[in-house]
Design a protein that fits this description.
Layout (H helix, E strand, L loop, with lengths): L2 H6 L4 H9 L6 H14 L12 H4 L3 H10 L2 H19 L3 H12 L2 H8 L4 H7 L2
Helix pairs in contact: 7-8
């Protein structure tokens, strides 16, 4: 509180202190009436009924939802093919792949960069390499 406000309210300060000391409490009857009015205003709880379509009740609804979330059968077929290729490369290392990586390791630094990087010469020049 500012000094100016304290000076203005100096004559009223005994009244404010008395009001703070004897703060009136609401009666129990008034609180009960307020609670009853508040409960009357609240909406009653209702059971939510979710309509179930016949399509959802059949077997496979979860699989259908998963397929639609992934993008349909074409996307799932692509994922399955990528998974099969990953398992194949992990289980059996192709001979051609090991020859390709070995050739890149023995080549000169500039040759190996252009062998593995599909960027054009202009892109390489712009990068400053």
């Amino acid at each position: 509180m500012s000094d100016k406000r304290k000076a203005e309210e100096a004559g009223l300060s005994p009244w404010f202190e008395a009001g703070r000391a004897e703060a009136p409490a609401p009666s129990g009857d008034w609180l009960a009436r307020m609670e009853a009015m508040a409960l009357d205003e609240q909406p009653a709880a209702q059971a939510s009924v979710v309509p179930v379509s016949p399509e959802r009740t059949r077997r496979g609804a979860r699989l259908r939802d998963l397929l639609s979330a992934l993008g349909g059968w074409p996307a799932v077929a692509g994922l399955a093919a990528a998974c099969a290729a990953g398992v194949w490369f992990g289980a059996v290392s192709p001979a051609g792949l090991s020859d390709w990586t070995a050739a890149g390791a023995t080549a000169a630094a500039s040759d190996s960069y252009t062998t593995f990087e599909p960027a054009s010469g202009f892109d390489v020049a712009m990068l400053g390499l």
